[in-house]
Structure formats: structure tokens, C-alpha cells
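Quick question: what would this complex look like in 3D?
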Amino acid sequence: MFAEEGNGLVKIEIGERRLSLNMDSDMVYYSLSDRTYRRTRMNDIIELRYIGGRRSARLLEEEEKAGIASAFYRDVEATSMQYPSLKRYVKDYSFLETRGKMLREIYGGKIPIVPPDRYFSLYIKISEGCPWNKCSFCNLYKDRKYMPLKIEKIKEEVDALKSFFRNSMPAMNGIFLGDANAVSMNFSELDEVLLYLGKEFRMPFYAFSDAFTTPLKNTDFERLHKLGMKRIYIGIESGNPDILRMLNKKMELDIAREFIEKIKEAGINVGLIVMSGFGEEHVESTVDFLGSMEYSKGDMVYISPVKEYGNFHEVLLANGIKDNREIAVKEYENIRNSLRSRLKIPVVVYSLDEAMY
Ligand code: SF4
């Protein structure tokens, strides 16, 4: 048995079992011999396993979550016999439920998605929803209207988050600026918000952006870099204009390319997100598009196997595309293998089953 606490995190090892919780007592990871449970901050629990060499993620049902959380805190309690300072972290499932509910209240709802490397960043909502909100495959923000938040509202959110993560803030690996396109808000307001957040936290910033509404705005990326922007995640989806039309993504690939270059010239890294599951032409043109750009350390490529939402199923059928998870996963592997041999940056999966905050 082994335990250590520091920098906002507690880590425990009991034989093959590995536990990780933050210093506000929130369960984070619970690894057993053949599976790992990750608890999101909104209190979903995802079971991760490798089946036939492939990673699989399953969202636990409500009734399963309490059992996992109880086993987790029983292990924390058992460890506290040898490490008495850990006693204060022993909680139960109702504690986690309350924490999830409190966080949803701070944000005014659930955070639908974050990039896979941002689970442990502090999400700060500086704008609500997506200014476009019309892509045929996406229903992440359909329930809300796009709206940049006023600085007073952001300050209230920051105060609430500081008190919520009172003991675990040192474990945060940056600030993710929500929601779908924080960098497209009025630039002087964005400047003011980032100056304020920079003084409050001293952590790098990350954000999503699209490559079709934002390039038309007067966004000063050099200034953003100076203010602490580290990486911008851009949904490219496909290198094929026909597929982009099907996805109702009003993006011109040439403009997207210029946009990416402009961000990189300013010293900001990019995280480019493409999808898989749309057929051979899509694979070829997407690999060509991504393979035709220069990257640097800190850039990333993410591949997201297509997942259906609402009437996207009909959109796929109307375009003669089979809706099949196996095909999407195979295509993901094809794109990944082609790019890994060409690009010198990480090319990884972006699974919508896992990318929850
Ligand atoms: S731009 Fe992004 S967030 Fe907005 S609708 Fe399209 S995929 Fe969804």
C-alpha cells in the first residue's frame, strides 16, 4: 500500500488498484486490474476497458455509480489506517452527487464537451453556446443560444469556482475557455476577460474555435498569445468539400488553412479535429489536407469517430453513407496510421463517449 498527497491531488496504490482523488475529496480515477473508472466533474462515471486490443468507453448507469463510488471510498478509508491524514477524504456517493449538482448550478447547466487533454483544466464559461449551431452532426449546444457573458457574470463564476475547488486548484492543468467559440467574442471584451483571468489564475488558456465565423472577425492572435493563449482547438471535420456540405459546415478549406497558419504564426498551438466514418474519399482528402501543413511541438491532431445525434442518421442515409460504428473506428485507424507516419505530432482519438467534463 502506498499513498501521497500534494499539488491538489491524492494518489493511492493498493496492490493492483490505483486511486486518484483531488484534495476536495472528488473521486477522479479508480483503476482495477482490467478496467478504469473516470469520474467527470459533473458526476458521470465512465468505464474504460481494452477489448480485443481496442479501447472501449461505457457510461455507467445511475444505479451502478453508487457501487463504484462506495468501493472507492472504502479503499480510501482502508488506506487511512496506515496514512491517517487521508481520513478527511473519506466520503460517499451522495457527496459526489451533491458536488456534481453544485457544479452544474455554477455553470448554469452541463458542460457538453472538452478536448481529451483538457479534462483536468478549469472550465470557465466566458461565452455560452455556439455562434453557428447549425452543423448537421452536432447537437452539443442546441439547447442554448449563443451569448458572450458580461465580465461581472464571469467574476461571479470565478469566485464560485475558487470556492468549489478550494483545495484542488493546484491540480488544474490550465484554463479552458467555454463554450464552443470563446475567441470569436468582441475582441476588446475578450482582452478584458483574459487580463482579469490571467491575474486571478496564472495558468495557460485553451479554447475551441471554428474556422469559418472566427476568421472573419477582428481577432488579434498575437495579442491572445501575449495574454496566455496556449492552444486553440479547431473543428475541421473533413478535407473534402462535399462532406463539409453534408455536415453543414460553412467552411472553405483554403480559408481554414490560412486561419490555422495565422494562429501558428502568432505562436499559438493548434489542435485540429477531424471525423471518421464517411468513406474512402473523405479519408484521402482529410489525410491530404492535414498532411499539407507545417506543425510544431504542442500541436495535436484528433480524430473523432462519427457518432449519431438526432436526425444526423437521415443525413448520412440520404448521402449513401452507412451508419456503422465499426467502419468509423476502422477509418479512424486508417487516418491515424497514415498521419502518424507523416506528421511529427500526436495523432489521437477524440471519443465523444469520453470527452466529458
Ligand atoms: S461549429 Fe462546432 S459547436 Fe458549432 S454546431 Fe458546428 S460542430 Fe457544433
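Answer marked as accepted. The first strand starts at residue 2 and ends at 6.
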